[in-house]
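Course assignment 3, question 2. Fill in each field.
Student: A.L.
Task: Predict the tertiary structure for the chain below.
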Amino acid sequence: MEEFFPILEKLPAKYADIMIVRNRLVQVALRTDSSDFIEEDWTRVTCRVVTQGYGVASTDKTDNASVEQAAFSALKQSRLCDQPVELHPTSPEQGRVEHVSKEEFQPQEVSLLLKSLSGELRSRIKTPVRIELIASNIQKHTTLITSEGTMVEEHTPLTDLTIYIVTRGPGEGFASKTLGGRGGFEVISSQPWEDLLESLARRARDSAVAKPSTYLQFSHPYLVGRFKVVLDHEAAGALAHEVAHFLEADVYNERFFKGLNYDLQLVDNPLINDAYGSFHWDDEGVRARVKNLLGRSGVSLLHTRLTAKNDAEAGNARGTTHKPRPCVSNVYIQPSDWSEEEIFEDTQNGVYAEGLVRAECRLDDGRIEIEPELAYVLKNREATTPVKHLKIICNVRDICRIDAVGKRLSLRPGYEKEFPISEGAPFIRINGAICR
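Answer field:
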């Protein structure tokens, strides 16, 4: 990277940097009627410049002439902007961090695991079923140098596995699971597969006989309007993620949080060992740090160097081919003192939501909508009739209605703005949500 420093020195700019991202992907997929293997390598060099505004240009070539051309293209782009920008000051960082895998991600071993998991699921479900398993390993190497003196490198291996199940019985049933973390084959081989497979098989079977969401209002009149809703790790983690969107500094609206009292704590932590969204430096070269986004002490925002002002802290920048934006790393609701059994025993009637199909938020009006894979009617403290296609609707201000938070945290890997993250929570209960 030292050879690119002269390029930065040529640029008449307030700030300039060069980032090289190298990725190597190995993916193995096993389906009912096919099996795939993919191996890809790609490299991208991005130059970012601040003069009047923020300019960005990228290339997939790493020779000096191509990088210099991209740098001066970024300079040109920065001069086209109407609104000037300033970067929050930060200390230059130098160093190299390499996260290592304990077990190599070898396609043959991965294929054998996928074959075994598929067979185990079939033996548990018994009815006709289509199963898809996709295992991926990405070796990501990022290098950043800046005109301020930062020079950092980070190598990160990420492994994940996604399982899809579609059953054919009395009706069509569906179940899925995504898991993963930082590391190699050990990330998926060391999972508690006995419990995970049994849970997936049960959800697929129940989904095949589940009632439509309209069943609630016609058969359970007490489940009309707002009522108690228990969310499992995945559904609650999705809620944590959607609330965090409202705390991104470039879209934050104070009116959604003003005057709220809440006991829960929402955390963004890029320093969790082996979590999918962990990093040592963000995409601006700012050292990672834990942020308490929401809690009794108030609200803290996700910042980049472009959004941080006064005493605010940068460190959540994501973006290489465009202006960096604030983004979560590993976002979760801090565990508390309720056991899962206590939450259900304390919930006389309501709904229990399990798994996740989708989660969305509206930044203009504060609305959050979560669609779990499956839900169960809670009657006399027990999970009874399964229900599918249910939508849980609440407002970001409804976080103050969360009155029970479990002890056991679980993180689910995913992507946000094309960057690895994870979201999670213990089981939680919202004392007043709308279900349709």
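Instructor remarks: The first strand starts at residue 15 and ends at 31. The mean pLDDT is 95.
Grade: pending
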